[in-house]
Amino acid sequence: xxxxxxxxxxxxxxxxxxxxxxxxxxxxxxxxxxxxxxxxxxxxxxxxxxxxxxxxxxxxxxxxxxxxxxxxxxxxxxxxxxxxxxxxxxxxxxxxxxxxxxxxxxxxxxxxxxxxxxxxxxxxxxxxxxxxxxxxxxxxxxxxxxxxxxxxxxxxxxxxxxxxxxxxxxxxxxxxxxxxxxxxxxxxxxxxxxxxxxxxxxxxxxxxxxxxxxxxxxxxxxxxxxxxxxxxxxxxxxxxxxxxxxxxxxxxxxxxxxxxxxx
Length: 263
Description:
263 residues, single chain
């Protein structure tokens, strides 16, 4: 049976920006090996697989290389597809059962708001060779549930960064979030995310990284609502509202492709 598949640019309001994700609407259970093969075929940073059941959707995320425990942009894309395709009535909450627990997405005017677990980074002693890996000295180093977390001294340093991806892949982390305070009044902070160990050298816009970025910059800047810009080649904006053990992430999404999987 053909499987409906969509490609959605997330954390952007225009096509060919933000972070592209594939979304598959499964008519029934499929095994993990098949899902991994589809993700490798799509060759995007994440492919999401949705399975309806009991008023909520099972949701799994795969990079071209591995299954991951949490993904923000593909969750945003999944909610967008459910409403746009008519699978869910407009205005109805999209509820997802995932490896990171229950995630809920809501439509708020022309944006999508997602309720995610907070993941504040904890300061650590920098791993040996980190400065050489980065090509500069970090201001602060920590780790969260999944990733290494590094603050640099300026937005310019974040934008210019060319880390040693081979050395990064050898570290015991999913990836590395690099951030600095924004030099523009339009944003509170900027960031980039590198995940070579997971098959994603640089992710265009990383929702899950903002589960750490939000609490971190709230402490640094004393603001309850923040706007982050992920300074990849495609770029994307994420609005962040830390709320205790949860973080509310807000963004937009645009469908760029609809089709069917025949394999």
